[in-house]
């Protein structure tokens, strides 16, 4: 995944001018699909290709015993919270269309989710700041779907690419942009 906010002017120009053609050729040569948007580009392995296989050291969302459990499930549900409730853009946003939430809201939202998911690890349900840091560990360095900015209060910024993992009910329409009107929807 390449975020436009991480690129300099020459790299942005290449991504805009040659990214669609050369990026698509690269994708074809490795059996991937190119998703090219204003926010950046991602080379994605089609699901039918990776069922039962792992192409790299990390797969998100995790499947199987070694990657299942409280933290990956909380990360997936938190993506829905960002898409439904997050603030788009702003001074601290790392790039176009990133959804942000203050860390206190992230911890609060994880508390609400922990109440509904009694099967989650009891220790993590009782230590929400630790659960938040564990979720951050999955979304930030591993998947590159999260950037955290400091200041008076930390803000967590979710990449636009994370919207591909929303698990909102099929009866609930996805918002056109993060924070567009699905507040209070029971998922």
Entry keywords:
single chain, 187 residues, alpha+beta, four-stranded antiparallel β-sheet, three-stranded antiparallel β-sheet
Plain-language structure description:
This protein has helices at residues 9-17, 19-29, 47-50, 70-85, 103-116, 122-126, 128-142, and strands at residues 2-3, 33-37, 40-44, 87-88, 99-102, 146-149, 155-158. It has 187 residues and is α+β, with helices and mostly antiparallel strands. It contains seven helices and seven strands.
- Give me the strand/helix succession: EHHEEHHEEHHHEE
Instruction: Assess the beta-strand content as a share of residues.
Output: 5-15%
Adjacency order of strands in the biggest sheet: 4-5-7-6
Global structural class: alpha+beta
- In whole angstroms, the N-to-C terminal distance is 28 Å
Major sheet, described briefly?
4 strands, antiparallel
Please summarize what this structure is:
The protein has helices at about 10-15, 20-30, 45-50, 70-85, 105-115, 120-125, 130-140, and strands at about 1-5, 35, 40-45, 85-90, 100, 145-150, 155-160. With about 190 residues, the chain is of the alpha+beta class. α1 (about 10-15) crosses α2 and α5 packs across α7 (about 130-140).
């Amino acid at each position: 995944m390449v975020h436009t906010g991480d690129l300099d002017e020459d790299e942005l120009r290449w991504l805009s001018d040659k990214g669609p053609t050369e990026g698509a050729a690269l994708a074809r040569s490795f059996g991937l699909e190119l998703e090219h948007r204003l926010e950046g580009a991602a080379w994605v392995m089609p699901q039918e290709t990776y069922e039962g296989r792992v192409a790299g050291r990390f797969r998100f969302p995790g499947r199987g015993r070694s990657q299942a459990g409280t933290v990956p499930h909380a990360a997936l549900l938190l993506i829905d919270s960002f898409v439904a409730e997050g603030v788009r853009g702003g001074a601290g946003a790392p790039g176009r269309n990133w959804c942000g939430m203050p860390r206190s809201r992230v911890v609060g939202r994880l508390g609400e989710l922990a109440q509904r998911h009694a099967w989650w690890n009891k220790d993590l349900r009782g230590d929400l700041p630790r659960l938040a840091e564990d979720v951050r560990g999955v979304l930030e360095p591993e998947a590159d779907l999260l950037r955290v900015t400091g200041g008076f209060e930390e803000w967590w910024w979710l990449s636009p690419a994370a919207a591909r993992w929303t698990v909102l009910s099929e009866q609930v329409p996805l918002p056109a942009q993060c924070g567009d009107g699905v507040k209070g929807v029971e998922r």
